[in-house]
Amino acid sequence: MILIIATLMAVALPLYLNAVQDASKKTCRANMRDVCSAAQAWKVKNRAADFTGVTLSTLTPDMGSIPSCPDGGTYTLALSGTELDDTGATQTIPTGGLGISCSYAGHNGYIPGVTSR
């Protein structure tokens, strides 16, 4: 009986831990998409030509609060340069574009119109 339970635990525990880790990463990615959507709404609301002037603090009034990474990472907006996409590949932020990254290892970043997920 104990051998059966031990075997089930050996199979089930890694699957459970992977599912929890995957859920955290997907939640983080959804948070990054939400922040980018709020930044795009800010751009329209302020009739801005680009994202210059947008920061996480300028988005707080519209979002209520900036979502946080479930694993404790911090979000950083980037208006130019490069950012890691969802696969970890380096992507160039388009001119006038926006990117966001999470400091938690493996969560990478999101660039609207470039990142697929």
UniProtKB/TrEMBL annotation:
Alphabetical keyword list: Signal
Secretion signal, residue range per the UniProt entry: 1-19
Organism superkingdom: Bacteria
Matches recorded under Gene3D superfamilies: Glycoprotein, Type 4 Pilin
Signal as UniProt keyword: yes
Full protein name: Uncharacterized protein
